[in-house]
Amino acid sequence: MAPEPLKPVYWIHGEDRAKVDRAIQRLVARVEGEGGMPPERFEASEMTAPEVRAACEAMSFGGTRLVIVRRADQWKAADVEPLIEYLDDPLPTTCLALVGEGGPTPRMLKAVEAAGQVLAFGPPAKANAKERAAWFRSYVQDEVKKYGSKISAPLATEVVTRAGRAGEDAGHLANEAMKLALAAGDDAVTKEQVEALVVVDPEAKAYLLGDHIVQGDARAAFGVLADLAGGSEQTNVYVVHRTLARHFRGIAVAQQPGATTADLGRLVGLNGYPATKAMEQAGRLKPGTGEWCVARIADLELDLRLSELRHLGNSPDDGERFVLEVAVRDLLGACRG
Q1: pTM score
Q2: What tens digit of pLDDT does each residue of 3-13 get?
């Protein structure tokens, strides 16, 4: 059967970057295979929507013109109006591919669906934390199955948990799944193989601690602190401090008037779902809470380095753990309002 004709526009997005990249490669190969021109590649941070529109409207004398725009999700709603107007009557010799981790704005989505197609690879954009965890667990199971092995749901969840922040990175999880499948062969992946091959991210529990603090859940927060203080999940106090600082810097930026996820990427280095989560958490807290927490975490650093309290206890880090617990108490109070 002959393939469907190329559409004038595609919005290709999702956190499964490997599949996003494969979709773009297939699109490039098809355009060139049908006698089209090599793709013109742009970055949304470097090109405005009017400039991209001008590239799309340029006449082609060598077959289909393919215009690829990366990080298109960083454009704000007002930025994309020229492209929405273009999609009312797109040039038939141009194929526009808009690529990003996130989906389009509502008006842009409507325009793309009317003129072309949206291709999504990853958990749904509006999935909550539980739904996202289920998606990544299933993703690990599917990736292991791809190599001829299998892994139980609880062990797949353990893989995601041990990966920490990288547990939200489909590409990283795909590599972990491949390692486990090759080790297991035709048998099912075992708990021993997961423990031996999947390295625990030292910041994994610290990220969870930040979430519990924002939720005002003292019991869960101090439970995580206990895990961080001993056992196989013991994490250096300074690693916890660094993770909390980044977490609340993101929230502080997100609480600024008019802040966007693009601002979080530029100022804090948070992109994709971590940026979206920071925006959501910022909305649940009283204005100014993020900045107060950043200041308290800065005091925590001084206490860890200079306070006499850091010398308390018998073990070398007893005092540092105590200073951290006091800071978590204060952060919980601020987030509870």
Answers
A1: 0.62
A2: 788 999 999 99
